[in-house]
Amino acid sequence: MVLRDRKVARWLGVSTTVVAAMLAMPAFGQTASTDASVGVGQDQADDEAVITVTGRRAAIQAADERKRKSDSIINSIVADEAGKLPDNSITEVLQRVSGVSIVRFGALNDPDHYSVEGSGIQVRGLSGVASRLNGREIFSANGGRALIWGDVTPELMQAVDVYKSSTADLIEGGTGGQIDLRTKMPFDYSIGWHAAGSAEISYGDLAKDKDYALSGLIAGHWNTAIGDIGVLVDVATSRLTSLSNFFRAEPYFRQRLPGETSDVFIPGGFDIGDEEFKRDRTGIYAAVQWAPSPDLELSGVFFQSRYKNKNQSHFSQVTSTNFTVNRTGSKFDSNGGLISTNSLFLRDPNTFDPTGSAIGSGGGTEGTRSNTMTRDISGEFSWQPNQGPFKLSGAFQNVLSTSQADRLAVFRDVPFPSSFGFDLSGDFPTVTLPTLAPGQFTNPANYQWAAAMPHNELNRGTMNAVDLDAQYSFEDSFLRDIKIGGRWSERKERDLNNGYTWTALGRGWNGFGADYAPQLTFANAKPGDIDAYTFDNFFHGQIAVPTQMLWPTIDLVRNVDVDDLHRAPPANFCGAADWGNPTYTNCATAGPLPTSTYGGPRSRVNEFINTDLGIWRTQNWAAYAQARFGRDYQPGTMGVSGNLGVRIVHVKNESQGFIVQNANTIIRNGQIQDLALRTDPRGGTAKFTKVLPSVNLQLQPGEDVKLRAAFNITMDLPTFNATRGGGEIGVASVTNPANTPDQNFPNLFTNFTASTGNPFLKPAMSSNLDLAAEWYVKPGTMFFVNGFYKRVTDLPIYSLTQRQVTVRFSNGTSEVVTASASDVATATEAATVKGVELGGRAFLDMLPGLLAGFGAEANYTFVDSKNPGDLYRDIFGTIRNDAPLQGLSKHNYNIAALYERGRVSARVAYSWRSKYLQSTNSNGTTPTYSYVATPGGTAQSTAIALPVYGDAYGQVDVGLIVKATDFLSFSLRGTNVLNATQRTLMGGYNNDAIYVRSWFQSDRRVSFGVNLAF
After folding, report:
1. For 891-911, what is the HEC assignment?
2. 833-869: buried (b, 16+ CB within 10 Å) or exposed (e) per residue?
């Protein structure tokens, strides 16, 4: 532990020393550039009127200029050099924009999987964010409507624009806003050849792997006999290996302690583990431009980004809904939630006494391979006869996106001690184990092969789109131009998803016959199928875990054929198929198997089947008209400008799928009932026509001040997952207490369940009002304040309801029953979102010498909402609708200390967001548990679906660029340098109490790069 801390301190110390040393270097001679210039203090102005700037400050000023000249409210981030946005991913870039926040998980509704580079994006608290590439629609084939931002190669981007107010000529979409990824075009360069390249190496302190990023760009622009011609090719590839550790507490279940009259809430155990991601991201971008005459310009673009990920995870679970404690030796908060105990144990519900039995401990190893690709091929033209007032332009676009994922988790069981201490009072949880029996966690015979769970996806999405625009401009007129246009698009997606098909291995109760029943142990493992795994430097040494346990190997989960895994061992391998035969119930003495065959046939075939299929199609027809007007600012005369327009959109959504009723055997009303396996097709078509007006007004009372007002109506189509035609009908049950080691009875029925999509969901509509003031003090120094209000109707929400469904039994009968349904529904009430953004940036150019390079940048966003809310069930099973909008943080801010002087550019940045709702139907927080008020009393089954929140989180990143020559620069960056911990929280308890669900830590990362441009 001491050695590890010293290594970390040394790593941070070296990084800090390098940054400090480079900041202290004398400024190199100024480099001439036409990109931007900034005024200096009066004392310096006597010697030189301006300082010409390059690199990051020039990029900052270019972004400010784009914001100032925009017809709507936007924020921009511009690359300082080709292939050099200031962060490693699109999400990291966007997190520093005012009003934008990112989700540091695999997805917004997946709080159990941490993502180092982030995934989802919210703008002003809304997840309805439209994704664009050079102003055109782009997406990922993942059942959603938008792009998976992590899939995109950031090195290909020249700039990123965030549109917060809309105009009629923008493609519809984005109740929160639109994000446009912009690439370079050949005509952006001067005549001749241009080239740039970069290389970077990085290292994470948990993953302990060296990674790389490479990119190269070449562009040419020439005047020829047939007109101007330009060609550009940009390629990039990178690898990132990251490791995250997690500790997760199970829901705090309602319990009654002996002799007491009020309830307490006790965690149902804990989970620990790690997850390593190794992703390879490659991109290629090519563009050609041809202007055969000054009146006509033609261009074509090819863009492709591919993301391959290989992840592996080891996890251990100690969970039960029946844990309890003694009042003595335990501490509780004022709401009855457990704070700490010296003994968490299982109890007998008939006596409330400890069972004294070993606690069952699960866990396993998981491996995933995924491969996603997004490709855009587009061509466009622009024709302006005789460079006159009339201009005609149009484009054709074809998008292909594919996604494939193959996952296998193999589970094992090992006895845990009969009790353990659990302390949740500190920054990190503490688990205290009693003295372990010899070999408890190291003897392979103590581990049982438990289950396997494969998961496969194969998705394909396509889109064709055509647009045509005509514009007529007026000279010397308050009316500047009129623009009309139309767009047609057809997007299709076909997804194959076989769910998470958990199936037991070698269990006597699985009902597949005696050959499959022997309980195989790790002592029966084929050589190479198991190994010892240590959670090295877990949470950087801040959480102690068992130092060594046994696990299925990564090679097994990556390479085994799932059907082979489920084959029976050789006949009589464990002796006679008789529960009186001790080797039949624990086959350890039989020794290793020659193959990885651990019993228990699969619950389904390995291939995709009809019930895995989802098909969607969306057709859009849109037409718009827009007028731009304005009068330029003159001293003594107010500048006035703006645009007024309307966009009319007709949408046709189609969805097809299957409703599946799963086979099950239960005891209901004292009778054994068999539910039949049944599949029925289901689908639907919905059509909508929407009118989307937009008004943007700008007032300019001074050369450096702009006041803006905007009103527009925007829309978001529901995701494909929400409109899926398919779904499931099933049953919830609890384990039969009459079970014995040699006798297994069906589970006891609690309630029927249903989960479906809704093909008839309406688009969400947002009426948006914005007011903004912008003060451009001088190049690089500006301040702004924006106020906004949104009223969102027809918002899709996760709904927990009771509804009638028809269940069918194996004997041919059927019954209409009431099921607990989890559906996506259209909210019957409007949600409102309001808030304010404010921020700015200033450089201290008035200071002498090297001090003139210092500056600061900061922004803050406050967002408040009233929302009909995703429904959830609290710990008592009561349905509630008081959850906030999913993904909305009330407070967000960014602070950065900057240094831009001569050839040195440095940044220390801190990004922070407050608590936000992640999900009301997260895996692990939706069980049905039994509550017993008195010993031997009647068990009350309670179904819950607790809301899970992402806790407040802030992260410090640093960056330094030194330009050695006009063509060569070096960079040094540190990510998460203060080792931030991301937590998730769960609500739904007494007095709205919230408890920590998960803790996550990931790598601190340092990277060194070199960039060459000429």
Report:
1. EEEEEEEEEEECCEEEEEEEE
2. bbbebbbbbbbebeeeebebbbbebbbbbbbebebbb
Question: What is the rounded CA–CA span in Å between residue 300 and residue 911?
Answer: 38
Between CA 343 and CA 349, with CA 344 as vertex, the angle to 5 degrees is 125
- Asked whether 829 and 791 are in contact (CB, 8 A), the reply is no
What is the SS3 assignment for 386? helix
CA separation for the pair 617, 630 (Å, rounded):
41
CB distance 90 to 160 below 8 Å: yes
Could you tell me the pTM of the whole model?
A: 0.88
The DSSP line for 20-55 is: HHHHTSPPPPP---SSEEEE--HHHHTT-SEEEE-H
Distance CA 496, CA 615 (A): 9
* Closest to 715 in 3D by CA, of 618, 780, 638, 853: 618
Model pLDDT for residues 138-161, shown as the tens digit of each residue: 999 888 888 888 778 888 888 899
Q: Using an 8 Å Cβ cutoff, are 155 and 199 in contact?
A: no
CA-based angle 301:302:307, to the nearest 5?
Answer: 140
Name residue 892's amino acid: N
pLDDT for the residue 21 = 37
Q: Could you give the CA distance from residue 51 to residue 44 in angstroms, rounded to a whole number?
A: 10
Query: Where does the pLDDT of residue 523 fall: very low under 50, low under 70, confident under 90, or very high at 90 and above?
Result: very high
Residue 50 pLDDT more than 70? no
The number of residues in the chain equals 1014
Residue 7 CB contacts under 8 Å (≥ 6 apart), including other chains: 205
146-175: burial string, b at 16+ Cβ within 10 Å, e else? bbbbbbbbbbbbbbbbbbbbbbbbbbbbbb
Residue among 769, 773, 775, 767 at smallest CA distance from 837: 773
pLDDT, tens only, 699-737: 999 999 999 999 999 999 999 988 988 888 888 887 777
* Integer Cα distance of 770 and 400 in angstroms: 35
**Full DSSP string of 937-966:** PPPEEEE-B--EEEPPEEEEEEEEEEE-SS
Rg (CA), the chain: 31
| Owner of token pair 């500006």 | 782
Task: Quote the tokens at residue 354.
Answer: 């400890």
What number of helices (H) and strands (E) belong to the chain?
A: 7, 57
DSSP bridge partners of 350 = none
DSSP string, 753-821: EEEE--TTPPPEEEEEEEEEEEEEEETTEEEEEEEEEEEEES-EEEEEEEEEEEEEBTTS-EEEEEEEE
Over residues 741-780, the pLDDT tens digits come to: 556 678 888 888 888 888 999 999 999 999 999 999 999 9
- Residues sharing a CB contact under 8 Å with residue 182, sequence separation 6 or more, in sequence order: 134, 157, 158, 159, 160, 161
578 phi/psi in degrees, rounded to 5 = -145, 125
**Would you tell me how many other CB atoms lie within 10 Å of the CB of residue 423?**
16
DSSP assignment string, 207-267? T--EEEEEEEEEEEEEEETTEEEEEEEEEEEEEEEEEEEEEEEPPEEEE--TT-SS-EEEE
Using DSSP, state whether 884 is helix, strand or coil. Answer: coil
Pairing of strands 479-497, 503-504: unpaired
Whether 826 contacts 757, CB under 8 Å: no
Closest CA to 704 of 641, 628, 773, 771: 773
Q: How many angstroms separate the CA atoms of 282 and 151, rounded?
A: 9
Per-residue pLDDT tens digits for 883-922: 888 899 999 999 999 999 888 999 999 999 999 999 988 8
